[in-house]
Every structure is written in C-alpha cells, then in structure tokens.
Amino acid sequence: MDGITDATMRAFQGAQKTFTHAVTEFIRVSNHPLPSRVFTRDVPELATNAITITGLLVQVQILGGDPDLMAISALNAIQVGATAIDINFGCPAPTVNRNDGGASILRCPQRVYEITKAVRDAVPSQIPVSVKVRLGWETIEPIHENAEMVQKAGASWLTIHARTKAQGYLPPVYWHPIGEVNRNASIPIIANGDIWTIDDFHLCQEQTACTHFMIGRPALANPQLPHQITQSLGLTSSGTLPQTDWPALFQKLLYYSEIFQGPVNSKSLNRIKQWLSLAQKFGDFPSCTPIKQIAEPDLFMQNLQEFCHSIEFAHSP
Ligand SMILES: Cc1cc2nc3c(=O)[nH]c(=O)nc-3n(C[C@H](O)[C@H](O)[C@H](O)COP(=O)(O)O)c2cc1C
C-alpha cells in the first residue's frame, strides 16, 4: 500500500509471522523504463533474494499503461533481484488514472491482456507475474472479461479488490463476483477488501470459496486478525491469542524504522501516527489526538505507552 507498506512495514509484518507474501508499494512506470537503481532504492530486500530480514517474501509491484515500458521495467527489477512481479490495475488515484495507469486500464480488457502478456513474456518463466485489479471502473461486470484476459496472458495469480474504481474506498464490497471468477478460474484467485474481522473473513471465504486472501488496512487496524486468519486456515496452531500489546508493536515498528530510516525522529513517528489513525477509524483503538500532536520521539512514546496502559486498565475485568 502506497505510503504504508515500505521496507520498514514489510520487515515489521514479516516479524509477525503471519503473511506468506508482501507486495511493495506501487512503483510507477511513466515515460521511460524504470532503471534498476529505482528498484534497489525502493526495495532493499532485493539484495537478500527479495526476502525481508524477518523472512517475508516480497513481490515488486509496478504500475503503468505502456506494455513495452512495463516489460523492460520488470526485467530491470529482476536483474537486481526481484523474484516476483505484480502489476497494479487497481489504483483509483486521479493523478495515476489521468496518466494512464492503475484502474483506468480496466476500461479496456485488451490493454489488460497486452500489458500482462508483455511483462509475462519478458521475464523468465520461473518468475511469477501476478495482477491486481478492482471489479471494474464504474460497474462490477468487467471483472469477468478482465479476469479472462489476465489468465489468457499467462498471469500466475490474480488478486481482486472487491470494489469498483468509482467506489474509491467506500462500502460496500462485493465478494460474490470474486467467487464467480474463482469458480471458473485456472489460476489462484486472491480475495481482497474490507476483511476487518474474523467474521468478515469467514463470510468472504464462504462467498468467494477462495483459499488465498490479501489483507491490507485491517492488518494494522486489528493486529490480531492475521493471527486469527492463519489459525482459521490451519497454518498455525489454534488457541486463545493474547491481547494486542500495542506499545510492544509500536516499539517494534520503530526498531525496524531505525534499520531502514536511521535514528528515530518525528518522521518515523508519523508512521505510528498514521497507524493510530487507521486503528481508530477502523479498529477499536480510542482517540488520542493530544498525543498525536507530540513531535519529540521519547515524549511521544512515553505518553503513548501510558495511554495504552490506561486503556488496558479500563478494559480489564
Ligand atoms: C493508502 C492506500 C494505499 C494503497 N496503495 C496500494 C498500492 O500501492 N498497491 C496496491 O495494489 N494496492 C494499494 N492499495 C489498495 C489495497 O492494497 C487494498 O486493495 C485495499 O485497501 C482494500 O483492501 P483492505 O480492505 O484489506 O485494505 C492502497 C490502499 C490504501 C488505503
């Protein structure tokens, strides 16, 4: 996720031992092929076989509308260590769409085919090339033709965000069409969108019959959820999970932030503040606006820690 899943966050998520893959923030291909140095700069994991220092596989995501430029860029990423490429046809940002990228390509299934095929053909066959889409631009029906094009072009798997571009991030999500695609698909289909709770997960599982899922914002809003899902999928042993230890999680994020961004400063705190906003908006973390205004790292962390303990105390029986 752009602005969220940077190397720090990917390392942090890897340490949680829940996800099998992480996808980079989209890297945009505009008028020129992206040189290898862009990938080494944005994806430091490429130096270690595209695996985070915490053991999580990382896929490089590229976004653009020109098949040749996308293909050369993918090849450049592979030359410096990428082991899997993901193509973004889901981004709804107006600046991206105006410049012929992201979800705007969904309006023309033939272009979905051509871009995917060009990347697929350019990179060695053992390198997975996957695609991420929304259901459509304005309506959900185009998902069927676009999913066919993705498969015909030889993609390794397809992730579907259960909304149209027109919806932005507004509810509702439509998981049923993902199920329709999944029933007829010859490649794995990954269901995505608004899986906020374990009940949502079970409903999504029921409606899509998918066995693979992508979780974005909810992994931060509800840090227990990825653990609950891996338990539910039988990937980890079942049992009662301990309560979320928010201060420990924030401290861990800062630990990885120091590795990738140097000594903790107000910028590193912004990541925690962004996380707090997500946890407040979509999870059950209480509002802590005055703390978010603190810029000095030690004072911020101390106040946050005290605040977290006070909520724990208020919640304990
Ligand atoms: C701030 C933000 C940035 C995002 N950036 C990307 C991106 O770079 N690549 C991508 O494939 N999806 C991106 N997404 C979409 C998410 O991957 C995901 O499809 C969407 O948030 C719905 O899933 P969720 O409810 O699990 O978060 C982004 C979403 C948000 C909110």
SSE layout:
Layout: H1 7-15, E1 21-23, E2 27-28, H2 36-42, E3 57-63, H3 67-79, E4 85-89, H4 94-98, H5 109-122, E5 129-136, H6 143-152, E6 158-164, H7 176-184, E7 189-192, H8 198-208, E8 212-214, H9 218-221, H10 225-232, H11 246-261, H12 266-282, H13 289-292, H14 297-315
Parallel strand pairs: 1-3, 2-3, 3-4, 4-5, 5-6, 6-7, 7-8
Helix pairs in contact: 1-11, 3-5, 5-6
The structure holds flavin mononucleotide.
Any key phrases for this structure?
binds flavin mononucleotide, 317 residues, alpha/beta, 8 strands, TIM Barrel, globular, eight-stranded parallel β-sheet, 2 domains, 12% strand
User: Oligomeric status of the shown chains?
Assistant: single chain
Question: Overall pLDDT, averaged?
Answer: 95
Work out the count of structural domains: 2
Sheet-strand content, in percent, reads: 5-15%
Note down, in words, how this protein is organized.
This protein has 317 residues and is an alpha/beta fold. The chain folds into two domains: 7-232, Aldolase class I (TIM Barrel, Alpha-Beta Barrel); 246-315. 46% of the residues lie in helices and 12% in strands. It has helices at 7-15, 36-42, 67-79, 94-98, 109-122, 143-152, 176-184, 198-208, 218-221, 225-232, 246-261, 266-282, 289-292, 297-315, and strands at residues 21-23, 27-28, 57-63, 85-89, 129-136, 158-164, 189-192, 212-214. Strands 1, 2, 3, 4, 5, 6, 7 and 8 form an eight-stranded parallel beta sheet that branches. Helix 3 runs parallel beside helix 5 and helix 5 packs parallel to helix 6 (143-152). The longest helix has 19 residues, at 297-315. It is globular and about 55 Å long. The model has no long low-confidence stretch (mean pLDDT 95). Residues 1-4, 25-26, 61, 88, 90, 132, 161, 192-195, 215-218 line the site of flavin mononucleotide.
